[in-house]
Amino acid sequence: MKYCLRLLGALLFLGMVAWNGTAESAPPLDRVAAWRQDLQAMRNALSGPSTIPQEDGPKTLHGQKDFARVYPPERFDASLREIEQEIPRLSDEEIALRLKQLMASAHVAHNAVFSGKPSFQKTLLLDLTWLADGVVVGGASPEFADSIGSRIVRVGDQPVEEVLRALDPYASYETEAWRRVRVVRMLQEQAMLRHLDLLDEQGRVRLTLESAEGKQNTLAVPFAPGPFAILSPSEARREPAPLAERHLQSYYWFETLFERHALYLQYNRCANDPAHPMDSLVREITASLDAHPVQRTIVDLRWNEGGDSSILQPLIEALKPRRQQTGKVYVLIGPHTFSSGLLNAMDLRKRLHARLVGEATGGSLSGYGEVEYFRLPNSKLLVQYTTKYFRLKNRNASLEPDLPAVTTAQSLRERRDVALEAALAAR
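Above: the chain's sequence. Below: its structure in token form.
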């Protein structure tokens, strides 16, 4: 189900400038001086309003909201000094990882450091997902298709649980659900596993897998720069894709399920699709409902990691007076429901009296948002931070479903969409 996530992860870095150690508009600096300049630029940009040189000209930044609380200055500065002192012995990759760890220390889900360095763009030829019963192969490149549905039990010579704990300090999260999303993504990055000394001499990672029958086998899995093809379980079996997997790369789409007297809408991205604007979608859905009223309307937000929460408002407004046509409204949520995706779920529950179905969201009911970015002048690391605090309810708390429906390794192997099943069966 996650081909689009692998693709989106790769697209995030398209166009990033290659790693280099000199500033374009200044005389060449030696490597240590260049990194020192980057560390100071990072401190200045996060600690308060500032202007920082960028490739397209000076950029005015607001600084991290509540900087002194989020990153206590004494501790933050001590971490920067420690990195500065170790620059001569650390590789560029290791310094980038130290800065990732520093940004993650605030436990603010939106705060992060991204690198355009090729080693950070090489990811595993497996797509892993952390389910309720462990880390499972949810998809794979064709040569590893037989591994889909297997559970990971060891990474190298270490139990997978120990490796997940070692990755935790580098993950930015506010909820347990988002921690799992972020950590399992890092488990697929070559740079992270090299840092943990888990690669073999060929740069591969040896994974011990356990099948549904309890049989174990070990694979040496390589990494590659994305995007590349990842087969879903259905594609690996050459079976039709389940409804929720048919158009994961689309911003949004819908289908009327006539035999189930239901309308299914999948909303994957809080953005206006240039090829299919939201106002067109609203006209299509309302026309369908007016012609063919349904008993239930299902809005799937399980893969919506955010964007602009206002994009969905025209549809909500159009559905409010059509309660007879929509029937009961159900919203599917899960660990990848994050940021504006979570806000939309809350809005649908409040304004359309929707019931939430699925699993706890990755997004938090309260927390820091309103993201800004800047690049460090020499390393070109992209730093993402937050400028506002949104208090909805309790911070560090997920939005919980009204009707729990948990995906497991068994349901993934059986190609069962337990959340959609629950919404279709609800009374």
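The chain has 16 helices and 19 strands.
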